Please model this.
Amino acid sequence: MGKILSPPAASTQRALYLYVQCDRCGEKLRARVDLWNELTPEYGEKGEDPISFHCRKVLVGENLCFQPIELNLKFDKGHRPVDKQIKGGKYIDEEEFEKK
Model:
């Protein structure tokens, strides 16, 4: 059986930071994904080791807008991001986030 409770290899990062901006009010938010604890494994047909992982996060800002921003993230079996979807906002880079 696979190593379900084992953390990823020591060479991987512990967290992934994503930066988003609300479509409605323009508020900028930062999301942290713990790559050791927040990823849900997806198993193949035999159900042994995970073949990939996913994570869903819903962010709500501090302004009076309160629009939920939904992030759906996919990762390969090495916990590296391979796809990201967003509803209610858009992804921005760290530099844009810092321009408050």
Observations:
- The chain has a mean pLDDT of 88.
- The two ends are 48 Å apart (CA to CA).
